[in-house]
Amino acid sequence: MPMVETSSVAFAEYAGQLRPQVDAALRARVDLADGCPTTLREAIAYSLLAPGKRLRPMLVLMAAEACGASAEAALPAACAVEMVHAYSLIHDDLPAMDDDDVRRGRPTCHKAFDEATAILAGDALLTMAFETLAKEVRPPEVAARCCAALAEAAGPCNMVGGQADDVADGVATDGDLRTLESIHRRKTGAMIRVSLRLGGLTAGADAQEMAALEAYGRRLGLAFQITDDLLDVRSDEATAGKRVGKDAQRGKLTFPGLLGIDQSVQRAEQLILEAREALRPLHPHAAGLEAIARFVLERNR
Ligand code: GRG
C-alpha cells in the first residue's frame, strides 16, 4: 500500500505553481519598506529573491493545505520563514562564520555588497519576518502563536544555538552521531519543523494534524541535513549553487564522515519512508508534503 494515496505529482510541478506566488509576495514585502536606504533595500532584495528552492515557504503552504485550508492565508507565514532563512544564509556566509563566496549560484551578499551591508540586510530580514507575522496573520491570537513559534525555532535554543555549536572549536572533529544530530535538529531541523507548524497554525489544525506535521517534520529535517552533507561530498559547485567539498576540508563532523556514504543514503531513505508514513492522518490532502519528501531524497541542489 502506498504511504499516502497521491498522484505522483513531482515537487517541480508544485514549485512551478507556488514559487511565482511566493516570490511575488516576498517582493511585495520588500517594496513595503519604503523608508529603507536604497543600498540596504537592494541587498535585502538580492538575497531574499535569489534563486533558492523556497522549500520552507512551500512547506508552510503545503502544511496548510494538508490541514484542509487554502494556501493563500498561509502566504504571510511562508514569507516570514523565508526571510529568517535568507538572514541565516547571509550571516552564515560571512567571513566570521563559513566565509563563503557563492550562494544560490551568485556571489554571497557580503561579496556583492560589503560586510556591513550584509550584516544589516540579515538584521533587517530577521525583524521583517516578525513584522510580517504580527501585522498580517489573523486573528491576532494566531499571529502571536506564530511569532512565538518562529522566535523559538530561530533563537538561541534552536537555529542560533545549533550554529553556535557547529562553529565552536572542538565540536567539529571529535563528536559522535548524537552530537551531530543534536546540532542539526537545532540548526537546520528547527526551521523545517516550524515551517510545518506555521502552516498548521494558520490553518487552524487540530492536535492530531499538528502531531502528524511534527512527526513528518522531525524526519524530513534530519533527512534534509543528511542529503545536504551528501551533496557536499558528491555534487559540484555549478549544480549545488554553492561551494562543495568544504566540510571535509575543514574536518567538520558530517553524516558521510561518521557513517560513510552508503549508510548515510540508507539513513536518509529510512527517514523519508517514516516521514511519508507520518502523513497518513492527513490523507488525502498531503500530496504536496509527499512530493517534498521525495524531492528531499532525490535533490541535487
Ligand atoms: C547564521 C544564525 C545563523 C544560522 C545559520 C541555516 C544556517 C544556520 C546555515 C546554513 C549553512 C548550511 C549549509 C546549513 C545546512 C542546511 C541548509 C540550511 C542549507 C541551505 O538551505 P536550502 O538548501 O537553501 O534550502 P536554498 O538556497 O535552496 O534556500
Report on the architecture of this protein.
With 301 residues, this protein is mainly alpha-helical. The protein has one domain: Orthogonal Bundle (Farnesyl Diphosphate Synthase). The protein is built from 16 helices and 2 strands. It has a two-stranded antiparallel ribbon. Helix 8 packs antiparallel against helix 10 and helix 10 crosses helix 11 (207-234). It is globular and about 50 Å long. The protein starts with 10 loop residues before the first helix and ends with a helix. Bound molecules: geranylgeranyl diphosphate. Residues 52-53, 55, 85, 88-89, 91-92, 97, 104, 159-160, 163, 187-188, 225, 228 line the site of geranylgeranyl diphosphate.
SSE run = HHHHEEHHHHHHHHHHHH
Largest β sheet strand count, sense and barrel closure: 2 strands, antiparallel
The name of the CATH architecture is Orthogonal Bundle
Low-confidence stretches are 1-8
Strand fraction band?
Answer: under 5%
Helix share bin: over 70%
Overall strand count: 2
Outline:
The protein has helices spanning 11-32, 38-48, 55-66, 75-93, 109-112, 115-136, 140-154, 159-167, 171-174, 177-203, 207-234, 237-240, 246-249, 255-259, 261-278, 287-298, and strands at 102-103, 106-107. With 301 residues, it is an all-alpha fold.
